[in-house]
Structures are given as C-alpha cells and as structure tokens.
Amino acid sequence: MTKSDKLSSGKNAMLYHNVRVTAHVLRFIDAIALAGPSLAAWFAGANAGLWPVESWNAALVFAAAQMVAFVMLASRLHVYHPRRTEDLPVELFVLFEVALYATGVGAFAALAFASNVSAQASLWGFVSGTAVLLGLRIAMRLAIRRARRLGGDERVWLVVGCNARAAEIAAEVLRNPHYGIRIEEVVDVAGGEACNTPMPEGVKLSVLPDVDAFRQLVSTRVIDEVVVTLPMRSRYDTISRILEMCSDAGISVKLRPEAFETSGYSTEVSLVGSIPMVTHYNGPANYGHLFLKRVVDVIGSAAGLLLLFPFFAIVGLLVKLDSPGPVFFRQTRVGLHGRHFEMVKFRSMVKDAPKLREAGAVTNERDGTAFKIRNDSRITRVGRWLRKYHVDELPQLWNVLVGDMSLVGPRPLPVKEAHGNEWWQRRRLTMPPGLTCLWQLEDDPKIPFREWMELDMRYIDSWSLWLDFKLIARTFATVLRGNGW
After folding, report:
1. How far apart are CA 263 and CA 53, in angstroms?
2. For residue 471, what are the contacts with CB-CB under 8 A and spacing of at least 6?
3. Among 329, 331, 467, 298, which residue's Cα sits nearest to residue 412?
4. Which residues of 264-301 are buried (b: 16+ CB within 10 A; e: fewer)?
5. Contacting residues for 312 by C-beta, under 8 A, at least 6 apart
C-alpha cells in the first residue's frame, strides 16, 4: 500500500467513524427538527389569530412530549440502524411514521395536561415539523451520497466465494456508487467446486489455497467487512473458520440468511426470547395488507349476514319443508395451515347423504381427490336450486365473520380430500380458505383438479387487496349465470 493510499484510507476511516458517531445523536437532532418547527408553527398560528394565544402552555407540552416520544419510538423501532444500502424513500417513510406517532403522543399529552388545545394547531405542528424533518434528511443523504461518490465515507468489502451470489452483490455495489462501498477483491477458498462464474468488470478475483491463507490476506489489507457467499451446506467448516478469524480480528461479517435456500421462500430474522432465529416462509408477507383483508372480511360478512337475514329465513323454511332433516349442513373442513373447522352450508341433500356416499351408492365425476356429481340422486328439489345459484354457500359468511374463512381464498376441502392431495398442493393452506376463489370464477364445475390447485397457487402468489375486490365483483356475475351443481 502506498503512502497516498494509507492517507486516503485514514481520511475515509475518520469520516466513517464520524458518521457512525453522529448516527447515535441523530435521533436527538431529528427530534428537535420535528418539535422546533411544530412549536414555531403553533406560536405563529396563535399570533395570526388562527387559535387562542393562551394556548402557549399546550404548545410547550405538545412539543416536549412530541420530542421525547420521537426519541423513544425511534430507539424502540430501531430506526437508526445503518442504512447505507437502503433506498431513501424507505427511510423517509419510516421517519414519517415515527413523526406521526410522536405527534399523536404530543397531542394527547397537551390534551391531558394543558388547556385550550387546538386540533388545527396540532395538525399544522405535525405538517411543519415533518416537512423540516424530511427535508433535512433528504439534504443530509444527498450530501453523504455525494461524498461517497467522491470516495469519502468508504467501506471496503472482501467477498468470499466465487458464485452467482458473489457476482450479484458485486454488480449491485458497482451500480450504486452512493453506497460508498469498494470491493477490495472476490476470493474463493480451494476445496469446493471450480469457479466458473464471471465477475463484473473491474472486480478482482483470486483463489486461496486453503482457509488459513485467508488470515494472511486480511492481515495485509484494509478490510472493513467480510461478505461470505460460500454455500452453507457444503462449506460449513470453512465458513466457521472464517467467522472465528474475523471475530478474533474484530472484523464484521455479512452472511446471507438463506442457510438452506429454497426457491420461492422468503426470509426474516426474529427473536425467540433473546435467541435470534432465521425464519423461511412462503405466501403473502405484507401483514398490513393482510390486516386490511381481515377488516374487509369482518365488515363484508357482518353486512352480508344482516342484509340477508330475511332471505336466510325464507331459504331455511324451504329447506325444512322440502325434506326432513336440519336446515344447515355442517362438515369438518381443512383451513389455514391444516387447522380443522366446521363449515356451515344450507343443506342441499337428503338427511343421510354422507352414509349413502360411504355405502358406494354414488359415483364420483371429478378427478383427483375432489368429489362432485352433477345429477346426484341425494340432492333435494330445493337443494338443486340452491346449488345452481350457490345459495347453499351463503351461510359460510358466518365462518368468515368468526375467522375460519375469508371472503376470497382457496376453497376449503373436506379432511379426507385434503389429506389425499399431492404434497406441493398443501401450499394452498398458507392462505385462509375463501368463500370464492379463482377456480370458481372459471365457471366450469368440471375443471381438472390439478388445474384447480394451480389456480389456487396463482392466487396466493399474486394476491393483493385489489385482486380480492375484483374476484368479489366477478363472483356476482358468476352466481347469476347459475352454472353451479
């Protein structure tokens, strides 16, 4: 390393150190940036006659509580972790969210401990404070990014592993110079498969004879972080040795969390008490949208049950008069992650229909494990009409209301049919079962079972609230065509 390189590295290290130290006090700077303009806006509005001048006590309580709440919430939500490689809009949204919560705490404190509280003043305080907070953050990030593009605040990475993951990381770093990351080298450790993966232009690649050579390499280079992309399963011992060496030398290590990578899986890190665990999961992961889906389910099912109650009474009477037996048919179905629940329908068959099926008196017309017959002799006269227009399914609004089902989702199968599915089809249980779904809207009761399952998978993989609303709207048209059986 030349003298100029050493001086440059020293300057970069000092800048990096200063940025890291400043990050710890940044939460207090941001709290002042939020509360200061909020207080100023409150007093300016009072002087302009928008709200009482006497509200200055409320203003002081509001600003103090807002500032304290911001610091506490930001610390609790880990807002000020390193965001070098994160997108700026993500950071701005997180800051906006914390500012909103802190403002709510401030308004509550002002209402509880002061008089003459103005909702308009609180709103203007939030708007002005948040505008200054986000504006300062944008300016700060732009300045830091410019410095990083010019070589300041530089972090030096050593990537271990010659594979597609290493090439992907190197390409990502090169595409984003504002990360302030320089890849010193990509090295592989002999003992694994031959390296046939080309690295991006400008990235040096070499192969170490053994893991002990890694120690010598690190000891002679300026390395801030080691990024390990070696396959965990086949190179576990090598990775463990690298972690031990880096730990002894005080060098941080980045590892991709996919210890056992599987296509289609997502990963998150969580705690079991104080024990960190890596969770691999499949299916929708936007819990905010899933919560809204549940809200729609509760409101929709409750409204449906209230509006249809007179109709349910008439249908129940017709079912009772048409054939002996109960009005409702209850059957155990398989729901979310294999949970069993009792699904309720209007009875459309004779009282002893399940016994007749077990006795072999009827023959299935569906492929796979599903069971369905168009001209089933067990169906009653009223039941045939109920099935034609899917009226027999409407009592499942109760299952939706209590949480066993959703308005939209894969249709729940009986226990015997669900257990007979192929293993890959079990993924349909990662979403709550629904009253309607994609395959029902195909309007073809004889759709092949495998295609039915594939449609369920397509729904899970492409799920969104907007998709649910579209399927609910299309369901009404399907019902009116009367092709059910």
Report:
1. 62
2. 408, 436, 437, 438, 441
3. 331
4. eeeeeeeeeeeeeeeeeeebbeeeeebeebeebbeebb
5. 394, 395
User: What count of other Cβ atoms lies within 10 Å of the Cβ of residue 128?
Assistant: 20
Question: Cβ(124)–Cβ(41) under 8 Å?
Answer: yes
pTM higher than 0.70: no
Residue by residue, pLDDT tens for the chain (485 residues) are 444 444 344 444 444 444 455 566 788 888 999 988 888 887 887 777 776 666 677 788 888 899 999 999 888 877 877 777 778 888 899 899 999 999 888 888 888 776 666 677 778 888 888 999 999 989 988 888 888 777 777 788 899 988 888 898 899 889 888 888 888 899 998 876 777 788 888 888 888 888 888 888 888 887 888 899 888 878 888 889 998 888 877 788 888 765 555 555 566 666 666 666 666 666 666 666 788 889 999 999 999 999 999 999 999 999 989 888 899 999 999 888 788 899 999 998 888 777 666 655 456 555 555 556 666 778 888 888 888 888 989 999 999 999 899 999 998 888 887 776 677 777 788 788 999 888 777 656 667 777 878 888 888 888 888 998 989 988 887 777 766 54
Alpha-carbon gap, residue 245 to 40, rounded angstroms: 54
CB atoms within 10 A of CB 28: 13
Contact 478, 408 (CB under 8 A): no
User: Phi and psi dihedrals of 342, rounded to 5?
Assistant: -95, 110
DSSP character for 53? G
Q: Give the tokens for residue 142.
A: 């732009």
Enumerate residues 6+ apart whose C-beta is below 8 A from 474: 441
Q: Among all chains, which residue has been given the structure tokens 């992961």?
A: 285
Q: Which residue has the tokens 């001086």?
A: 7
Q: Would you give the distance in Å from CA 332 to the centre of its chain?
A: 30
Helices (H), 225-282: 236-249
Q: In 3D, which of 323, 448, 308, 435 has the Cα closest to residue 384?
A: 323
Enter the DSSP assignment of 414.
B
